[in-house]
Write a structure and sequence with these properties.
Blueprint (H helix, E strand, L loop, with lengths): L6 H11 L27 H6 L5 H13 L1 H9 L13 E4 L8 E4 L4 E2 L1 H5 L1 H8 L3 E6 L7 E4 H17 L7 E5 L5 H11 L3 E4 L6 H11 L3 E5 L2 E3 L2 E3 L1 H14 L7 E4 L17 E3 H4 L12 E2 L3 E7 L7 E6 L1 H14 L7 E4 L6 H13 L3 E5 L10 H9 L3 E4 L1 H10 L2 H4 L8 E4 L6 H11 L6 E3 L34 E4 L5 E2 L3 E7 L9 E2 L3 H9 L6 E9 L5 E6 L3 E4 L2 E4 H9 L4 E11 L3 E10 L7 H14 L8 E4 L13 H8 L16 H8 L4
Helix pairs in contact: 1-3, 3-4, 7-8, 9-10, 12-13, 15-17
Bound molecules: ligand 6R9.
The site of ligand 6R9 has 23 residues, from helix 13, strand 25 and strand 26.
Amino acid sequence: TTTSHFSHVESISKLSAAGKISGVNAVVLGEALASEEDELVFPNDEFSRQALVPSPKKYLEMYKRSVEDPAGFWSDIASQFYWKQKWGRPVFSENFDVRKGNVKIEWFKGGITNICYNCLDRNVESGNADKIAIYWEPNDPGSQDSLTYFQLLQRVCQLANYLKDKGVKKGDAVVIYLPMIMELPIAMLACARIGAVHSVVFAGFSAESLAQRIVDCKPKVVLTCNAVKRGSKVITLKEIVDAALVESAKSGILVDLCLTYENKSAMKRESTKWREGRDVWWQDVVPKYPTTCEVEWVDAEDPLFLLYTSGSTGKPKGVLHTTGGYMVYTATTFKYAFDYKPSDIYWCTADCGWITGHSYVTYGPLLNGATIVVFEGAPNYPDSGRCWDIVDKFKVTIFYTAPTLVRSLMRDGDEYVTRYPRKSLRVLGSVGEPINPSAWRWFFNVVGGSRCPISDTWWQTETGGFMITPLPGAWPQKPGSATFPFFGVQPVIVDEKGAEIEGECSGYLCVKSSWPGAFRTLYGDHERYETTYFKPFPGYYFSGDGCRRDKDGYYWLTGRVDDVINVSGHRIGTAEVESALVSHPQCAEAAVVGIEHEVKGQGIYAFVTLVDGVPYSDELRKSLIHKVRNQIGAFAAPDKVHWAPGLPKTRSGKIMRRILRKIASRQLNELGDTSTLADPNVVEQLIALADR
Ligand code: 6R9
C-alpha cells in the first residue's frame, strides 16, 4: 500500500489547516525552542504567490498522482520534450526485488530521443537562440565570456563532428578531464549528441585514479586542457593525463588521441609537454569543422554517461545513467526544487566532475533553457567575497552550493557578504552533506537576507536527481531538514531487519519503487549493483544513509552508515585511502575513520602501523599523506595520521572501527566493551600515542 507515504503530506496539511502556513513573513524562530525539530521557517506570501508549487495542497495533489499513477504523471511531463519516436508500453518497468530475479529498471523504453537536441536545438528553435546559455567567469576577476544557446549549439556541433571524424561512434566511451571552462559542458553535450558515453573525471583526481577509470571504461579519446589556474596556483592537468596514459598502457589500454585545449590564461602551448602523434591542440582542429551536426537518435535506455563514485571497497564504481529517464528527471527536479522561471540566472558552484555538475550545472538547467554561470576559480580568491561579487555581476537569482562552502565563508565573517548588495538572489540551495542548522541560519539570514528559501536537496550520484528536497514557497522549512520527497519518490525508513518503520523514527533510508533518474547498473558489474544497493534490504533500493523522520514527517539525513566518508561533500571510501596508505613501502597496515570537522563536515583520520623496525617521524607522516594525494587526489589527504604499533582487532582479525572512531574523536570514556579484542592493551597504547 502507499498510505504510509502520505503521512508527511497529511502532516503538512494539518500545519496548514491550523493556520500555521499562511501569511507569516519569513522569520527564524530560533534558539528558544525545545528542539531543532520545532523550528519552522515560513515562506513569505509574496514568494509563495508566484511559486510553481504555492501550497501544501498543490504539492499533495501532484505528489499523490505521481505515486498512484507514475506512468501517467511522468509521461505527461516527458511529452514536453522532443522525441523522434514516442516510447512504447509500459511507460516503465522494474524489478526492484532481488528475490524475484535480476534488478532491472527501464523508463520510456522504445522512445527515441537525444538529450543534446533537447538541451540546445529545441531551445534554439523555440525562440531562445539569442538567450545566454552560459556566462563564464574565469579564475582571475576582471573579464568574462558567454555563449548564447545558438553559439553553444555551434560549438557543440563542431566538437561532435570532430569526434565523429576521429571514429567515435554511438556507445563508445570518452573520458573528459577538464576544469570548469566552457569546453567541459561543451564536451559532455558533444558526446551526447553523437551517442558516445562520456565519463567525466574530476580534474582534482590524481594520475593513478584517472588511469584506473581509463582502464575500466576504455575510452576512444581523452579530452583535457594543458593547465588551469585555481586561486594563485597553476595545475598542469596535461601532465597528469600523460602520466595516467602511461599507467593505463601498462594494463593494455592504449588511448591514441588526446585532444588538448590550450587554456592560455594558465599556460601557453609552448610550455606544454607534448606527445607528437597522440596529442592534438583543440583550437587547431575543432573550429575547422562545420557548425551543424546531425543528431544520433538513441533509445531512452541507451547509456548517456558513466560517473565513478566511491564505495566501501577500494574499487570505484562506474555509475551508469541512461538517456530518457535521466533527461525527464533532471529537468523536472531542477524546475520545481528551484522554482525556476525563464528570467532566472542560475549558478551552481559544483564542478562538472561530480554528479551535481552533470545534473544541475549542465543537463537540468539547459533542458529548461536556463542561463547558467560557470566559474573556473576558487570561491575564496582573490578573497572570501568572490561569490557575492559574481552574484552581483551576473545578477544571479538562484545560488546552489555545498554546506562546506557555507561554513567556510561563515567563518570568514559577514563583512565579505554584506559588502555586496546581492539583491538579485531569490532561491538558495545546498547539497552534498547535511547542512547543520547554524550554517543554514547564516546562509538564510546573512546571504539570503531572510527572504530566500533554501532547497536542501538530498540525493546521490546513483539517484541522478533530487530525491528529498524542499519546494520553495510550498511549505515551512526546518533548518537542517531536507523536508519531503520529490514527486514520484517513495522513501522508507527500515530497521536492521529491513522492516519498514512508520511515523516518527530513525533507521536506514531506502526507496521503494523506481524513479526515472535512477541509475541502471554499475558499469561491467551488475552483480555489485545488486549486492550493494538491493540485497541489504530486499525489495528496496538502499541509499547507504541513515535518516530520521520527525513528528511532522520531515526527513533529517544523519550521514552515511557504511564505510564512506563525506569530506567537503566529496565521497571517499575509507578502503581507498587505506589502500593508498599501505602502498607506501613503510606502511604495513592502515585503518581510516571519519571525524567531525568544522568546515569540511568530516575529516580523514588515519591510523597507521609501520613496517617492523621503521621509526615514526614527521617526515614519514608527510610522505604518507603525500602518497594519498598522489594516489587519489589532494581532497582525500588525511587530516591526521596516528601512529599505531597495533590496531584493535577481534580474535578473527577484524578491525574494530567503532573503537578507532572513539579514539579519533577523543571520546575516551565511551570506548565500550574492549574485552573481545585479541589484545586489549593496544587501546591503551593508541591513547598514549594520540598526540604524537
Ligand atoms: C549529490 C551528491 C551522496 C551522499 C549521500 C549523502 C550525502 C548529499 C545531502 C546529503 C544530507 C543532503 N548528501 N546531499 N546528506 N543532506 N542534502 O552529493 O552525490 O557525491 O554521490 O554523494 O552525500 O550521504 O549518500 P554524491
